[in-house]
Amino acid sequence: MSDRLETTIHDIAKKLNISASTVSRALKNNPVISEATRKLINKTAEEMGYRPNTLAANFRTKRTNTIGVIVPLIHRHFFSSVISGIEEVAYKKGFTVTISQSNDLLEKESKIAQTLFANRVDGVIISIAMETTNFDHLQLFPAKNIPIVFFDRVVDEIDAHKIVVDDFGGAYRATRHLAEMGSKRIAHIGGPMNLNIYKNRQAGYLKALADSGLPTDEMLVINNNLTREQGIEAVQKLLNLPEKPDAIFCANDTTAQSVIFHLIKTGYKVPDDIAVVGFSNEPFSEMVTPSISTVRQPGFLIGIKSADLLIEQILNKQKEIEFQTIVMPTDLIIRESSARQK
Amino acid sequence: MSDRLETTIHDIAKKLNISASTVSRALKNNPVISEATRKLINKTAEEMGYRPNTLAANFRTKRTNTIGVIVPLIHRHFFSSVISGIEEVAYKKGFTVTISQSNDLLEKESKIAQTLFANRVDGVIISIAMETTNFDHLQLFPAKNIPIVFFDRVVDEIDAHKIVVDDFGGAYRATRHLAEMGSKRIAHIGGPMNLNIYKNRQAGYLKALADSGLPTDEMLVINNNLTREQGIEAVQKLLNLPEKPDAIFCANDTTAQSVIFHLIKTGYKVPDDIAVVGFSNEPFSEMVTPSISTVRQPGFLIGIKSADLLIEQILNKQKEIEFQTIVMPTDLIIRESSARQK
DNA sequence: AATTTATTTGCAATCGATTGCAGGTAAGGT
DNA sequence: ACCTTACCTGCAATCGATTGCAAATAAATT
């Protein structure tokens, strides 16, 4: 009804015949205010239906208590787990979280970054878009001393805390597992090489081949954007090789699923003819038939860690910080798509 | 030059020997400023590295150009589609979107609402949590004349624009389809009756039974929270009935999937022994085997419509608005889980 | 009783952009 | 020349909370 009548600290001050500064301090639990006055002020504020004007406070303090989060796609299970972790920490420490999705597009990511910047977020947590190879839009933040934390898809070119998962180890174990299942020609469908995560997964794959005494074959490695469609194209290419693969390690579950789909459709048995392992442990991976072996990433923990590191920086802006790159463990989940009876 | 700080409109004004008001107007493309001065001001602003202080503007205008979105779970495909729709519109009209998830918990939803309120969002778009039966936390907004738009899981008790999908029609068509496939005893696993969407789906189911000349049987209707676990419990109960069902219409895809999983595990053939239809068209529903027949909801369109209606209210605050409830169409997707050879 | 110390509170400037109203200027009309 | 009108621009108040510094009061010490 009467929304022109917001109570301010001045109204409270006037009513109690004290100054606005005292009211402000009391409401903020500033220890310099005596217990008695604080109680009185809180009671009166309550009675008068006072609600603090966050906008005024933000303006004055130049802080918004807001963390901006940019992820490629919020509906990816991994990312929504990370977001949940971030929210968990942020709420506890009194920060609000603004989530945006880049849809893996550089242009959208850039616009989001600008918006967050203009809205003066106190810090940013980001996993960059697949397309992103230029980082000017992210330089905005360091330039104004606004902390950034990168996770998963990190950027070498910017100095900041980075949380990555052990892509190398996950890929290594996945590939070793395929070798242990008796596979001799293990193919790899990987992502774009501008993203470290895919570089590392590929490196893990190659190392595992070497350690298993298997030769590497360029023809068995295909890089694309890991969509459903490209997964099918890739597997078709692999099946057309003179020497077909007997196992495929895919850098994400979507590709693994489309690969399996195509293999079964064209008459191959999974895992007996060709075993498949994916990456990320998307929820569907255990629901499909055959269920997909995959590598689990600790999304929730990554979110917690990212938010912790970010908030620490926000609260200690002056301090010189030693940036660190934290590697979170991954683990292999063996399911039907790779579990051969030996 | 005191410009280790941020450039303000006053700095620009001083440099050009004009007033801050003119600068402000020029930067806002206020038509009252002549073309010449506007160009000069924009150029100078650019040169001086001016960036508008959104916080100051927000404070002054009491507007944040921010829309708060509250959904149960962002990783549900339906909700992330809606969010994409909202973002699409919001971005175009210069609004920022803050997304939060309630995890289907009343308490979290309530905290989020308070945070959004304290942060002075200009409007809210929400689909309420499964638990929510009390709406005090949402009354905050109407009380301060902050518009809300409800979608999908709407609330009768608050007067506002509401966008719902045609749950009744979708359920009706799903059930009719099961009847046409020859099912005589069609069960229903539904959600909590405090949510309209589940009430309507159940009503559609019942009407379809009646129109198909099938008797209704209380024993064939089970209501729970539609989780995986509860889906399995429910189907166990149904299989223990003296007269088992030959089809099950589930109010979401998660339940449908767990039901199918359990049926196959216990030796039933889907769809031949028991046909199953879900609801929402989650991406996994077409990837699992058998793929799940389901009801598609136009999430993206709902997001667009919600944002349109909300922003219209934000921009025309004074106007009396006739609140409307918009019903969006649904359609049935027939897949393997219900496609019997007749 | 005088002085020091500790404890509370108030003053007043500030943050930067916005906007109603008044004042100024140039162009057009008589 | 004088007066309107239309068009630009400036003045100055304002939004509400925060905070460094000074001052007032109370308590403790000599």
Describe the protein.
2 copies of one chain form a homodimer. The first copy, chain A, has 342 residues and is of the alpha/beta class. Chain A has 3 domains: 9-52, lambda repressor-like DNA-binding domains (434 Repressor (Amino-terminal Domain)); 64-165 and 299-328, Response regulator (Rossmann fold); 167-297, Response regulator (Rossmann fold, 3-Layer(aba) Sandwich). Helix content of chain A is 43%, strand content 15%. The first copy, chain A, has helices at 9-16, 20-27, 35-47, 54-61, 77-92, 106-118, 136-143, 167-180, 196-211, 228-239, 253-265, 299-315; strands spanning 66-71, 96-101, 123-126, 148-151, 161-165, 186-190, 221-223, 247-250, 275-277, 294-296, 325-328, 331-333. Chain A has a 6-stranded parallel beta sheet, with helices on both faces. In chain A, strands 7-6-8-9 form a 4-stranded parallel beta sheet, with helices on both faces. A two-stranded antiparallel ribbon of chain A has the order 10-12. The mean pLDDT of chain A is 92. The interface between A and B is large, with 43 and 43 residues. Chain B binds a DNA duplex (30 and 30 nucleotides) through α2 and α4.
Briefly characterize the structure.
2 copies of one chain form a homodimer. Chain A is an alpha/beta fold and 342 residues long.
CATH topology of the largest domain in chain A: Rossmann fold
Which CATH architecture of the largest domain in chain A would you pick? 3-Layer(aba) Sandwich
The pair of chains with the biggest contact is: A-B, 43 and 43 residues
**Can you count the beta strands of chain A?**
12
Query: How many separate domains of chain A?
Result: 3
Oligomerization state of this entry? homodimer
Report how far apart the termini of chain A are.
Answer: 74 Å
**CATH classification class of the largest domain in chain A:** Alpha Beta
CATH superfamily caption of the largest domain in chain A: Response regulator
